[in-house]
């Protein structure tokens, strides 16, 4: 079998088009422009790339982008004061603090200082609780993007065996909640899971979010399964810099029914969902 490639880049472009059309209507009919504030503390090179990409795409769909770049010497009180200002600013509908924060800052404290209604990452403890109890919440962007691709490919996910490899708060745990919400039978596996290969082989839907380059080979994939590869790992091969996922693409694509490539799979969907969440936050704020 050769897997169908799930084209996240094309899907994300469609989502952005829909967001842009809705933003244009909001402006014309209600004079409202959604605004997204992104806060970057420090000089992490990967974070800088993500933040500039987020800002660019925010403007491209017609929203206002407010970038706050702070030095890595920024203290907690100063960062919390900025968040308080953004919480109170009616022009800002979404707030995102880029992670990881420098070590001297307490990420939980900072994230939980964001107004949950503006928490477009869905990381605030209130949103985590709402998602876990099946209530309306802001949903973390990467798992939301994965779910959208899965629903688009399968229609209903009810009754499918889903295995999520990785238990992070950003991807693994919310992904499992979303799949459970769509009536999958969900297993969360991780680095301490016994017989990880066997667990993966049971999956109709296999979501890899461990951050280890090409850790999951094709012979861990059930024939015909759908593989969602969340990993974005920079490696060097044959003297060239390359991006690879957490799944060994060639061997997995030979047995899977469908697979997301890296790059061009989950990655583009994450920012598209961030824009969609900002629009949602803006619509909720304006009744
Ligand atoms: N760092 C890596 N992924 C993310 C994300 O989805 N949101 C934020 N805020 N930081 C990240």
From TrEMBL:
<keyword id="KW-0658">Purine biosynthesis</keyword>
<dbReference type="GO" id="GO:0009086">
    <property type="term" value="P:methionine biosynthetic process"/>
</dbReference>
<keyword id="KW-0521">NADP</keyword>
<dbReference type="GO" id="GO:0035999">
    <property type="term" value="P:tetrahydrofolate interconversion"/>
</dbReference>
<dbReference type="GO" id="GO:0006164">
    <property type="term" value="P:purine nucleotide biosynthetic process"/>
</dbReference>
<feature type="binding site">
    <location>
        <position position="232"/>
    </location>
    <ligand>
        <name>NADP(+)</name>
    </ligand>
</feature>
<dbReference type="Pfam" id="PF02882">
    <property type="entry name" value="THF_DHG_CYH_C"/>
</dbReference>
<dbReference type="InterPro" id="IPR000672">
    <property type="entry name" value="THF_DH/CycHdrlase"/>
</dbReference>
<protein>
    <recommendedName>
        <fullName>Bifunctional protein FolD</fullName>
        <ecNumber>1.5.1.5</ecNumber>
        <ecNumber>3.5.4.9</ecNumber>
    </recommendedName>
</protein>
<keyword id="KW-0560">Oxidoreductase</keyword>
<dbReference type="GO" id="GO:0005829">
    <property type="term" value="C:cytosol"/>
</dbReference>
<dbReference type="InterPro" id="IPR020631">
    <property type="entry name" value="THF_DH/CycHdrlase_NAD-bd_dom"/>
</dbReference>
<dbReference type="GO" id="GO:0000105">
    <property type="term" value="P:L-histidine biosynthetic process"/>
</dbReference>
<keyword id="KW-0368">Histidine biosynthesis</keyword>
<comment type="function">
    <text>Catalyzes the oxidation of 5,10-methylenetetrahydrofolate to 5,10-methenyltetrahydrofolate and then the hydrolysis of 5,10-methenyltetrahydrofolate to 10-formyltetrahydrofolate.</text>
</comment>
<comment type="similarity">
    <text>Belongs to the tetrahydrofolate dehydrogenase/cyclohydrolase family.</text>
</comment>
<dbReference type="GO" id="GO:0004477">
    <property type="term" value="F:methenyltetrahydrofolate cyclohydrolase activity"/>
</dbReference>
<keyword id="KW-0511">Multifunctional enzyme</keyword>
<comment type="subunit">
    <text>Homodimer.</text>
</comment>
<keyword id="KW-0378">Hydrolase</keyword>
<dbReference type="GO" id="GO:0004488">
    <property type="term" value="F:methylenetetrahydrofolate dehydrogenase (NADP+) activity"/>
</dbReference>
<feature type="domain" description="Tetrahydrofolate dehydrogenase/cyclohydrolase catalytic">
    <location>
        <begin position="6"/>
        <end position="121"/>
    </location>
</feature>
<keyword id="KW-0028">Amino-acid biosynthesis</keyword>
<dbReference type="InterPro" id="IPR020630">
    <property type="entry name" value="THF_DH/CycHdrlase_cat_dom"/>
</dbReference>
<comment type="pathway">
    <text>One-carbon metabolism; tetrahydrofolate interconversion.</text>
</comment>
<keyword id="KW-0486">Methionine biosynthesis</keyword>
<dbReference type="Pfam" id="PF00763">
    <property type="entry name" value="THF_DHG_CYH"/>
</dbReference>
<dbReference type="InterPro" id="IPR036291">
    <property type="entry name" value="NAD(P)-bd_dom_sf"/>
</dbReference>
<dbReference type="InterPro" id="IPR046346">
    <property type="entry name" value="Aminoacid_DH-like_N_sf"/>
</dbReference>
<feature type="binding site">
    <location>
        <begin position="166"/>
        <end position="168"/>
    </location>
    <ligand>
        <name>NADP(+)</name>
    </ligand>
</feature>
<feature type="domain" description="Tetrahydrofolate dehydrogenase/cyclohydrolase NAD(P)-binding">
    <location>
        <begin position="140"/>
        <end position="284"/>
    </location>
</feature>
<keyword id="KW-0554">One-carbon metabolism</keyword>
<dbReference type="InterPro" id="IPR020867">
    <property type="entry name" value="THF_DH/CycHdrlase_CS"/>
</dbReference>
């Amino acid at each position: 079998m050769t897997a169908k490639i799930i084209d996240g880049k094309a899907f994300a472009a469609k989502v952005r088009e829909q967001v842009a059309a809705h933003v244009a209507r909001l402006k014309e009919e209600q004079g409202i422009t959604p605004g997204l504030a992104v806060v970057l503390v420090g000089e992490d090179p990967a974070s800088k790339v993500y933040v500039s990409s987020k800002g660019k795409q925010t403007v491209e769909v017609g929203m206002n982008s407010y970038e706050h770049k702070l030095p890595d010497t920024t203290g907690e009180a100063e960062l919390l004061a900025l968040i308080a200002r953004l919480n109170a600013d009616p022009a800002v509908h979404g707030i995102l603090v880029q992670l990881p924060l420098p070590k001297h800052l307490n990420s939980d404290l900072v994230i939980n200082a964001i107004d949950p209604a503006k928490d477009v990452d869905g990381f605030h403890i209130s949103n985590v609780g709402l998602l876990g109890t099946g209530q309306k919440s802001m949903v973390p962007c990467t798992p939301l993007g994965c779910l959208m691709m899965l629903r688009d490919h399968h229609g209903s996910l009810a009754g499918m065996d889903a295995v999520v490899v990785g238990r992070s708060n950003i991807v693994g745990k919310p992904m499992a909640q979303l799949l459970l919400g769509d009536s999958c039978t969900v297993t969360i596996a991780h680095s301490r899971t016994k017989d990880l290969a066997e667990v993966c082989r049971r999956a109709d839907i296999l979501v890899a979010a461990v951050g280890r380059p090409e850790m999951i080979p094709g012979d861990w994939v059930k024939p015909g399964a759908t593989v969602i590869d969340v990993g974005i790992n920079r490696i060097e091969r044959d003297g060239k810099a390359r991006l690879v996922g957490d799944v060994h693409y060639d061997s997995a694509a030979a047995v899977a029914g469908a697979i997301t490539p890296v790059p061009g799979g989950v990655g583009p969907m994450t920012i598209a969902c961030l824009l969609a969440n900002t629009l949602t936050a803006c619509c909720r704020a304006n009744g």
